[in-house]
């Protein structure tokens, strides 16, 4: 039977997009306490089912699919520009497909407007009206208001009209930045993208005996199983180490390891991979925020997914992408070095190489060196930066990695960064090596 928390989430999901939601009303409709209703509504907000807007309230919105991540709702626009809703609140859940800057004559402006677009404009009331009639929302810049008949039209059309204190071009830059950030996030693989649902996996109940563990071990490819209670909450895990020397009629809850490591669907795959490598774990339970078992991920699944991601073209360009694209490898006998040029994106406000970019160089060079030596993938454990001197914009640098220690599963690398034959940066990286499957 579903818990009250789950019943509220199911109720919210069944509501029509655009419906307003209140803690008091949900508590009354489902006969639950207001505290329970509040926690469930917050969880619905985390899942992207609702959005809470200041001076408007909480509304049901369309849950975003990952492939449609580059589009923003009008409710999100309010948060980005610190806006205030003047009218058309019923349309805040709608998705913005493009925006138009109204720095032109009205006739020219109308040629670019279409349904579900956003007109960014100043105090031009006639343009506000025409945009709404064309099916476009309006964002008024400069902190201006609009006339009452425009607000009534926005309510009638269910198209938001929003006011912000920022100027037109600042607002356009802020929205562009938000869309770009969404594109980068779209490329980040989460545990929820690859996990195996619990219906297709094996787990133990705490009331099972050890005999059940032996049965599963014989019929599956692994020996590590999560343990759940009557509400399917993960309460432990059983591995081969836990069962050594134990009688087969013992209850699982007496031999399990309590408080095991778990991940959420929202956990990034890279974080899960690091955690599994560091702890030497083959399988990790995937849980909901209230700790109920929803699936499993295996170390092999994670590594395969990460290697697949590395082969995909990236849409949003991060600092790491910039560092990677400009780095070339040079080989002179047994000596391997890397060269790059400092571009504006790699500098701090003073125009010199950013410390963060220096660390990105260290990580990328070390990873490429291990790949070149066919040692597998590198998982960084620790980077110690000893010193860094200012490196000017447009400077050409050479990065020389030198292996201090290497084993089957770990490596220690000394990295020096040179500019015009001077050492301008030095670091030591310690990492683990994982074989490619």
From TrEMBL:
InterPro entries attached to this UniProt entry: CBS_dom, CBS_dom_sf, Diverse_CBS-Domain, DRTGG, HotDog_dom_sf, Ser_kin/Pase_Hpr-like_N_sf, Thioestr_dom, WH-like_DNA-bd_sf
A Pfam match: 4HBT
Domain annotation CBS: ranges: 195-254, 256-314
Alphabetically ordered keywords of this record: CBS domain
CDD domains from the UniProt entry: CBS_pair_DRTGG_assoc, hot_dog
Keyword presence, Acetylation: no
Name of the protein described by the UniProt record: Predicted transcriptional regulator containing CBS domains
